[in-house]
Amino acid sequence: MGEIKIFCAGPEKQLNMPKTDNVLITPDYFVSKSKIRYTVEMLKMCGAKYVLLDSGGFTILMYEEKGKMVTFDPTKPFIKEDNLLNLSPVHVAICASIVKPTFMVGLDYPVIKTDDPLEQYMDYTKKLGYNLHWTWASAEAREKYCPDIEFFVPIQAYNLDQLQFFWKHIHGIKFDGISLPIRNMSIEKLALFMMFFYQQGIDKVHILGTTKPMIIAMAAFMAKHWFPWISLDATTWQKMAKTGGYINHLDLSSEYIGNVIFENHYNNDCPCPFCKNKSFSDIYNLKGPAMTYFLGRHNFWVTEYFAKEAFNHCDDIHMLKYFLKKNFKPRRHKEIERLCNALTIVKNCKDDDLKVVEKLLMVP
Predict the structure, then answer these.
(1) Which of 119, 226, 238, 262 is the most buried (most CB within 10 A)?
(2) How far apart (Å, rounded) are the C-alpha atoms in residues 337 and 348?
(3) DSSP H/E element including 222
(4) Which has the closest alpha carbon to 180: 168, 170, 169, 189?
(5) Which residues pair with 206 in a beta bridge?
(6) 23 or 128: which carries more pLDDT confidence?
């Protein structure tokens, strides 16, 4: 039996961020001496036990899409300005040597989000050289600047063939886990990739950039049965808080708190400590920063709560299905069936040829 962890991504001291054992930061937190001091203070404030330093590769994609200049020169300082980004594997490792996180993700060049097979092939091919070189360079920089920090290899691939090709060409790298961005992936493809990691003997997988409930449920089942460690992260808790979004502890659906008050007239049955003895009217009347503060803590707490509940209710697939169907509205039941079908296939075929499993899963 392993563990499932939800990492608090995008933390901000000004939001009086939630107390949590798990925090994700990026090189953005190291752009200046004052930002470094801010980062150290913020991590002390939240009492994090596990800190994951993501490489910030997604920022490369954002700058590229906006036509801004991006360079990868390790001999110059890390720069993130309005129209210029300079980021390299060495910069990520130096950031890790300063704050000493538990885990460091190697620098990657993210593939774009597209369902078009030709666009996928072109973008994967365009960025493969960068991703192979940077994975090796990140491993070398880790050994030089922060050898005691666990190193996660980032995966940028659209399909099993691309994953296997990348894997073949990083053979020999010393690493401790995998970081897997979730965009572009169906639940079946995620199951297939996770089975690849299982067959390779990987102990730790971080699923980057999502806290969707079906993915949390899959991660919970796999952590309970096959992996010692699976973690996830997203900034959803924070984005919702800033716009008045209240996340439901049962299914992680969200709704503007004003709608809950004026349209639905629900009683507040949330088990989180922040909602105790508070009606939805009480929450709505907080207004401004006080509401943002409250919702941020509530939203993150219920996300962790859902992950724990899913983990506690997945001794087998039937138990997990019952838990999910009890908590989700009927319109989501097809998703639950799809998830459980994928889990059933990989459970029965987890040691089989992945090409056979891919066909059984009917991976889109």
Answers:
(1) 238
(2) 17
(3) helix 213-225
(4) 189
(5) 179, 231
(6) 128
| 227 neighbors 199 (Cβ within 8 angstroms) | no
> Residue 18 pLDDT more than 80?
no
Instruction: Tell me the two tokens of residue 127.
Output: 């960025």
Which residue from 64, 38, 56 is spatially nearest to 209, judged by alpha carbons?
56
Closest CA to 17 of 302, 299, 293, 254: 293
Residue 302 near residue 246, CB atoms below 8 Å: no
CA atoms within 13 A on the CB side of 267: 3
Distance of CA 85 to the CA centre of its chain: 23
- Which SS3 state, helix, strand or coil, does residue 209 take? coil
Count the helices and strands in the chain (H runs, E runs): 14, 13
DSSP 3-state of 245: strand
Please name which of 186, 272, 250, 213 lies closest in space to residue 6, comparing C-alpha atoms.
213
pLDDT for 21 equals 86
Please give the span between the terminal C-alpha atoms of the chain, in angstroms, as a whole number. Answer: 30
Residues 6+ apart with CB under 8 A from 149: 96, 100, 101, 102, 103, 104, 142
CA distance 247 to 241: 9
Half-sphere exposure at residue 70, Cβ-oriented, CA atoms within 13 angstroms: 16
- In the block, tokens 């049965």 appear at 225
Residue 95 tokens, joined: 């950031």
Q: What are phi and psi of 329, to 5 degrees?
A: -70, 155
Per this entry, what is the length of the chain?
364
Concatenate the DSSP letters of all residues of 6-64 into one string: EEEES--GGGTPPP-SEEEE-GGGGSSHHHHHHHHHHHHHHT-SEEEE---HHHHHHHH
Work out the angle at residue 250's Cα, subtended by the Cα atoms of residues 16 and 203, and round it to the nearest 5 degrees.
Answer: 75
Q: Are strands 103-105 and 79-81 parallel, antiparallel or unpaired?
A: unpaired
d(CA 6, CA 133): 30
Q: From edge to edge, which strands make up the β-sheet containing 79-81?
A: 69-71, 84-86, 79-81
- Return the ∠ at Cα 144 (arms to 138 and 150), rounded to 5°: 60
pLDDT digits (tens, 9 = 90+) for 214-239: 999 999 999 999 999 999 998 888 88
